[in-house]
Fold these 2 entries.
Entry 1:
Amino acid sequence: GKGMAVLTSGGDSQGMNAAVRAVVRVGIYLGCKVHFIREGYQGLVDGGEHIQEASWGSVSGIIHKGGTVIGSARCKDFMTREGRLKGAKNLIDRGITNLVVIGGDGSLTGANLFRQEWPSILEELLKLERITAEQKAKFSHLNIVGMVGSIDNDFCGTDMTIGTDSALHRIIDCIDAIVSTAYSHQRTFILEVMGRHCGYLALVGALTSEADFVFVPEDPPPVDWQKKLCDKLEQERAQGQRLNIIIVAEGAIDRDGNPVTAEQVKQVVVDNLQQDTRITVLGHVQRGGSPSAFDRILGCRMGAEAVMALMDATPESEACVVSLDGNQAVRVPLMACVEKTKAVAKAMAEKQWELAVQLRGRS
Ligand code: F6P
C-alpha cells in the first residue's frame, strides 16, 4: 500500500481530530500505511518519534475532542531549505510520498512549495549522500492534499473552514451569557472576537445575537462612525432596550486602514453617552472546547476526500485542497485558492473595500 502521513499545522481548530481520524481510517481501509506527524512541520523536520505509524484504534475516542491530538506548531525550521531537506529525508526513510496537511493558508502554501521543490530536494539529498539513487528513483514524486483547519473562515475556495462553526457556537454562547448580566445592569458591552484579518466570525456572531453594531476589516465603518454608533445606541435605548452589544473583530480597521480597537469604541460610548460600558475579549475560548456536529462531519468528509484525492494523484496532477462547495466536498487547486486569499489581503491593503467584500463573498 501507499505510504501516507498526516499533520496539523498553524493555529489549532475544532474538528481537526475528526479530519485526522478520517484520514487514518480511510487510508487503512484502502490498504495504505498511514503515519502521524506530531507537532506539525516541526515534527516533519525533527523526525524520530514524531513520525509514528497510526493504527485503526489509535484514532478512537478523539472525534469529540477540541484542538488536535497530534499537536500543532508554527515552524520556522521548515521555512529554510535545510529544514525541508531534513523533512524530505524523514519521509523517504519511511516510504511516505503522500502527505495530508491540515492548516491555514500559510501552512498550505508551505506544503505546495515543498512539493514543487521535491525534485531538486532529491537531487541535493543524493549529492549529500543522505539518500541512495534507488531511493531517489523510487520516491520521485510527492503528492500533497490540503484541508483548511481554521476558526477564521478566511480561506477563499471553501464555504467553511474546519472549526468556524464551533467557534461561532462558542461566541454566541458567550454573547448570550454577557447579555443576561448586561440586562441586569443596563450596560453596554463591547466584545472583541477573533478572526485575524477576516470579519466572518464578528459578522455572523453579530447577526445571530442581535448585536447593535459590528466592526469588520473588509468593510470599515463610515468616516463618521462615532456619530452613527452613538445614534444607534441611543435609538435602541429610547425604544426600551436595557443594554447594547457591540462586536469588534480583532482585525477591525477604519477607512484609512488604522486599527479600531475595543478600547477606542468604549471611549466613544463613555464620552458621548456616559453609558456604563465594559469590554470582554473572548480570546482563545473561541478556539477551544468540543467541536460542533457540523465540524465533526466536515472533518470526516474532508478527511475521506483527501485520501481519495491522494489515491487518484498522478505525477502530473496539481496539489489540491479539499473544500466545501454547496455542501459538497470537492477538490480545488491549492495555489489558485492561495492566490485568491492573497487578493483579498491586497484589496484591503489598497483600501478597495468593495472588491474585498466581493472576493470574500465568493469564497
Ligand atoms: O487563526 C486563528 C487565530 O485564532 C486567529 O483568529 C488569531 O488572530 C490567532 O489565531 C491567534 O494566534 P495565537 O494562538 O498564536 O495567539
Note: The chain has twelve helices and twelve strands.
Entry 2:
Amino acid sequence: EWSMANYIEESVRQIRETVGDKRVILGLSGGVDSSVAAALIHKAIGKQLTCVFVDNGLLRLHEREQVEKLYGDHFDLDLRVAKKANLFLGRLKGVSDPEKKRKIIGNTFVEVFDEEVNKLKKRGNYAFLAQGTLYPDVIESVAIDGNPAALIKSHHNVGGLPKKMKLDLLEPLRALFKDEVRELGSELGLPKEVVWRQPFPGPGLGVRVMGPIRKKDLDVLRRADAILHEEMMAADLYYKVWQSFCVFLPVKTVGVMGDERTYENVVALRIVESVDAMTADWARVPYEVLRTISSRIINEVTGCNRVVLDISSKPPSTIEWE
Ligand code: XMP
C-alpha cells in the first residue's frame, strides 16, 4: 500500500544501495526541491552527503544565516558555504542587459560550484551529484532541448553540470510532482517556511535590481523586500499568493520628509497569483495591507521615498521584471 512513510523508507533503501560507501554532493539553494532532496538523502546516508550553498551576494536579507542555522545546526548536515558575493558583484559591475546578467550569474555559479566539487574530491570519494529534479522538470527539459525557441528567459538550473564533473546523477525526486515533494518535505521535518516557500529565481535579486547592480541598491531592495515579506505574513497572505516581492527601480523621484526635500529611488511591489507560473494575475491585496507595506517601506528604508504597485498580468508581462 502506498504511503509517504513507505515511500521514504523505499527511497532511503535505494539511496543507500546506490551510494554504497561513496559520497554525494548537492547544491543547496534553500528552495523547496533542493531542500527536500537534501533532507531525504541526509536521512539515508547522513554525513556521506555534503551540501554546497553559494552566497552570490544576490540573496535576500539574512538568507545565508537562515540556511546555516536550519541545515548546519538543526539538521546537522555537512554544509559548505561558498562566500562569493564579491566575485559575482564584480563581474556584474556595469552590466545592464538582463540576459547578460543571467548568463554571468549562471556561469559564475557553475564555476564556483565546480571549484567546490574539486576541493571536495581531493578530500574523499565523491561519486554522485544530487539534484532536486522533479517529474515536471524532466518533461520541461525535454521540451526546451527539443525547441530552443521555447526558452524565453535563459534558465538558471544546473543541467549539464555532472558530465564535466565526472559525477553520477542522483535524483531521488524524479518521480514526484511538486505537491508530493512538499508532503515529503513535511514528513522529513522541514519547516513550513521551507516547504511552502514562494519560488525565488536562480539569479536572485540580480534580476530584481533593474539595470546595473549596485551594492547599495541591493541593500535598499533587501530591506524593502523583508518588510513586504513580514507584512504578507502578518496579513496571512504570504502562502495564499504565488509570489510577493519587491523590484528596485533606478529612477529617482522627489519626496518630502519633515521639512526636507528628498530625492530617492522607487520600489515596485510585485504580488501575483498563479498556479504554474505560465500565466499569472496581480493579486488583489486589500488596500489597508498595501498602505501598511508602503508606509513602512518609505519610513524605514533609507534610499526609497516612493512605492508603486505592479498591476500587470502574465501574459503579456512576465512575473519577474527582467
Ligand atoms: P517569469 O518572469 O518568466 O517567471 O514570468 C516565471 C517563474 O519563474 C521564476 N524564474 C526563475 N526560476 N531560475 C529559476 O529557477 C530563473 O532563472 C528564473 N527566472 C524566473 C519566476 O520567479 C517565476 O516564478
Note: Confidence is low (pLDDT under 50) at residues 147-156.
